Structure formats: structure tokens, C-alpha cells
């Protein structure tokens, strides 16, 4: 290879890349046009090849170092910018996109909540009328603790808060993902999960009510339940969306319906994860605390639930269309 000729041909590109990088580092993306950004990415690939050649032919260490610096700076700007854009897209989704999706899919997660509530009513009714029904669904130690010692089992969390919080998060995420995955059965398993979990809550409500522990029990549930239960309903709604696409694809056909409803279900899943993480922390550290007044726990639960409703009704400004945030994540989900 004619080194001098190669150097004279390549130096122009190196200098151009250096100039673009200096402007990008000083002014940010706003300092470059779209064409210049594309040119910078192209030059980065070219100079990376030049660096490989310089190393292969044992050229000057100074030259190799200069090319290494250029490629390192280019990589940092290109991929940090990409990650920055990804984080910005995630921020837009949680700020505007998720409320938009919640409003779009409200019929499905409300249906999931209705199935849960029906299970809860049936569980409470039969649990209240027949104590043997409680034994069919609840573990004996839990029933014995309430009946014989007149106390709740929630005190076992105290002293093990970090471990309990992490286990609660994992369990709630597992329940939610099973509800979503149940959509592949046409929504039948999703319906079962919603109904059965409601049944359990209803039976527990009957048990604690029968022995005068309803007030402290629901005070325990209120702070984390204000986020945890809606998250489970959203998961159920996601499962029902998938079931709808399979059973009633409509005019699009099953494949297209799965893309459309599956994208909405995926966005609901993105939404439930932070809710369940926050709820797990609250349930591990705040809900079982004996030093916090019960009335305050009810107030915290009410405040969290009220803010969640306000968030779901949040309308983006006219310039910030939710479709840009939710649509970007939907396209990634479809792909």
C-alpha cells in the first residue's frame, strides 16, 4: 500500500469528522443538520476502517492514537445520543403515552376489574356464611392466627422489610405476567386469574371481618393496594386485549389484530412494572409499620389512588401528541 497516497486521500475525511465532532460536542445535536448527522455516522464507519488499516500496516503510533481518539469520540456521541433519545422516548411514554393507552383500553381493564370484583363478592359472601369455605382457599396457619390469636399475619414482614419487599415485587409481577400471558388462551386464563384472586381477597375480607380485624387489615392493604390492584387490572386488560385479537380479530385478520392489540397490551405491561415496584416497596416498608397510625395509611392509599386517577386522565399539551410516545413503543413491541 502506498502510505503517502493513502494518507493524502484519507486526511480530508478525518478533518471533516473532527470538525463535525467539535460542533456536536460544543452545541449538541441542535448544532448539526440532519444531513450532517448522517454524514458524521458515515464518517465514523469509514474512520473505523482506517484505524483498522493503520494498525494492520503498523503505521505511526501517533496516527493510530489520533484515529483511536476520533473513533472513540464518534462512538460516544452517536451512541450516547441514541441512548439519550431512548430515555427521552421512555419519559414521553410515561408522561403522555401511558395515560393515552389507559383511556384507549379502558373497557378491557375495567372488565378485568369487574371480574375481580365479582370474585371478591362471591368469596366474601360464601366466606361470611360458611367458615368451612374459608378453609378451602386459605392456609390453616393464617386462619388459626386470626381465629385463635386474634391478630393479622402482616407482622411477619417487620424486621424483614428488604427481603419481603423484593419477594412481594416478584410475586406481584409473576401474577400480572400470568394474567397477560393468559390472553393466548383466548382470555380464559386471564379471566380465571382475575376471578380467583378476587375470590381470595373476598374470603380474606370475610375472615378478618368476622373476627373484628377488618379496620387494621384494610389499613394495611390501602397504601400499596391503591397501586397494586390497578396494576393487576391493567395486566388483566392486556390479557383480554390479546384474547380479543385471537377470538374476534374483526376486519383486519388475526395477524394484524394481534399486532394492533398486542402493541396496546405491551404498553400496558410497560405501565404496570413501575406501579408494582413502588407498591412492593410500600407493602414491605410502609403498610405493615406499627408506628404509623391506621388512619394515615388510609389517607395515603386514598392520595395515591386519587393521583393515579388524575394521571390516567392526563391530557398532553397540543404540541405533544401521545401517539409519538406510545406509537414509538408500540412499533418496537410489534417488531
From TrEMBL:
The keyword Acyltransferase does not apply. It holds the Pfam family SpoIIM. The keyword Membrane applies. The chain crosses the membrane at residues 106-127, 175-195, 200-221, 227-247, 268-286, 292-314. Keywords: Membrane, Transmembrane, Transmembrane helix. This is Stage II sporulation protein M.
Amino acid at each position: 500500500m502506498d502510505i503517502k497516497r493513502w494518507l493524502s486521500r484519507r486526511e480530508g475525511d478525518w478533518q471533516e469528522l473532527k470538525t463535525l465532532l467539535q460542533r456536536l460536542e460544543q452545541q449538541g445535536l441542535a448544532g448539526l443538520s440532519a444531513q450532517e448527522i448522517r454524514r458524521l455516522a458515515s464518517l465514523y464507519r469509514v474512520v473505523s476502517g482506517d484505524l483498522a488499516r493503520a494498525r494492520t500496516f503498523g503505521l505511526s503510533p501517533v496516527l493510530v492514537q489520533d484515529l483511536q481518539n476520533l473513533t472513540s469520540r464518534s462512538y460516544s456521541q452517536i451512541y450516547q445520543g441514541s441512548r439519550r433519545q431512548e430515555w427521552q422516548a421512555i419519559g414521553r411514554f410515561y408522561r403522555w403515552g401511558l395515560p393515552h393507552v389507559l383511556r384507549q383500553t379502558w373497557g378491557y381493564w375495567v372488565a378485568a376489574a369487574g371480574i375481580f370484583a365479582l370474585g371478591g363478592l362471591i368469596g366474601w359472601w360464601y366466606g361470611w356464611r360458611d367458615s368451612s369455605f374459608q378453609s378451602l382457599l386459605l392456609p390453616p396457619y393464617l386462619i388459626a392466627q386470626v381465629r385463635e390469636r386474634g391478630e393479622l399475619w402482616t407482622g411477619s414482614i417487620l424486621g424483614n422489610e428488604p427481603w419481603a419487599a423484593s419477594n412481594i415485587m416478584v410475586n406481584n409481577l409473576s401474577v400480572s405476567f400470568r394474567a397477560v400471558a393468559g390472553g393466548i388462551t383466548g382470555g380464559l386464563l386471564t379471566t380465571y386469574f382475575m376471578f380467583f384472586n378476587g375470590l381470595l381477597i373476598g374470603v380474606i375480607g370475610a375472615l378478618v371481618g368476622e373476627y373484628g380485624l377488618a379496620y387494621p387489615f384494610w389499613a394495611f392493604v390501602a397504601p400499596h393496594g391503591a397501586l397494586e390492584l390497578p396494576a393487576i387490572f391493567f395486566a388483566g386488560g392486556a390479557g383480554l386485549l390479546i384474547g380479543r385479537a385471537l377470538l374476534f380479530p374483526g376486519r383486519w385478520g388475526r395477524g394484524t389484530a394481534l399486532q394492533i392489540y398486542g402493541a396496546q397490551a405491551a404498553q400496558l405491561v410497560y405501565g404496570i412494572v413501575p406501579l408494582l415496584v413502588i407498591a412492593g416497596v410500600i407493602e414491605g416498608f410502609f403498610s405493615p409499620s406499627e408506628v404509623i397510625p391506621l388512619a394515615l395509611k388510609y389517607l395515603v392509599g386514598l392520595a395515591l389512588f386519587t393521583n393515579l386517577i388524575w394521571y390516567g386522565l392526563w391530557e398532553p399539551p397540543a404540541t405533544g401528541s401521545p401517539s409519538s410516545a406510545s406509537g414509538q413503543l408500540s412499533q418496537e413491541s410489534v417488531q
